[in-house]
């Protein structure tokens, strides 16, 4: 039996769908309050849904009954300052519990981390799996939670766990809707006026799912892989989206000081309204930083060729 945690989320649902399309009958976890993803509705007969929470060990024990493979896609994600410590605690403790249970039962795991947990490369070089985030200087709650969760998997591997780790860049796809990375497309459609100088990696959600499944089917263990379809300057990305949506592309450069003003304003508004800020300190500053990711390790490991980012952008725009 194959288990997918976090299957109601953007990536988890795609992993579940890909597994079903390959002829598998799978088990997926969901919290009691979570809704079934629309993309999985046609495959209800092939999916055994169970109520489970990574913070509830007993529910995980039941979910893991008869399981031989786990795709761990579950994570608590929030930009709210008040959620920073709970997010770190939840993601790390939940991962640690799952790691221990899988290790005890001889279950193979593919763990979803993030490039947020990967460090910086020297100027002019691409970021690889050999770079590591410095926990003594990092302040972003999400990055810390991903780094410390990944460290729990490395602990498990040292204790005998059969596992690999994937570090996706920004995952995009039509099924995101207007949530998560879908906000980028929604913002451009509604009339984005400014762009930043930064560069970041993007990858199709289907490619991430396919890479995870391909890795699961190998005998590779104790490795991490950056999953990146291509690097894009934000200006280029916004222009591609705008052209696809037949709207005006942003033409004004948002300088770093302007981004500082933006995140502070968003934080103040979020404090007044109790809502998540549209942009936080970390993402505001990252928007002006050049981060290019090297995907050669995963391509070599499984012989994978990524879908062009431009093709995914077109698909998302056509579905909007």
UniProtKB/TrEMBL annotation:
Annotated PANTHER family: NAD(P)-BINDING DOMAIN-CONTAINING PROTEIN-RELATED, PROTEIN YEEZ
GO annotation, cellular component aspect: cytoplasm
InterPro entries: Epimerase_deHydtase, NAD(P)-bd_dom_sf, NAD(P)-dependent_oxidoreduct
GO molecular function, one term: aldehyde dehydrogenase (NAD+) activity
Domain (NAD-dependent epimerase/dehydratase) ranges: 2-226
Top-level taxon of the source organism: Bacteria
Coiled-coil region: none
Cited Pfam families: Epimerase
Protein name as it appears in the record: NAD-dependent epimerase/dehydratase family protein
Lineage of source species: Bacteria, Pseudomonadati, Bacteroidota, Sphingobacteriia, Sphingobacteriales
Taxonomic source organism: Mucilaginibacter conchicola
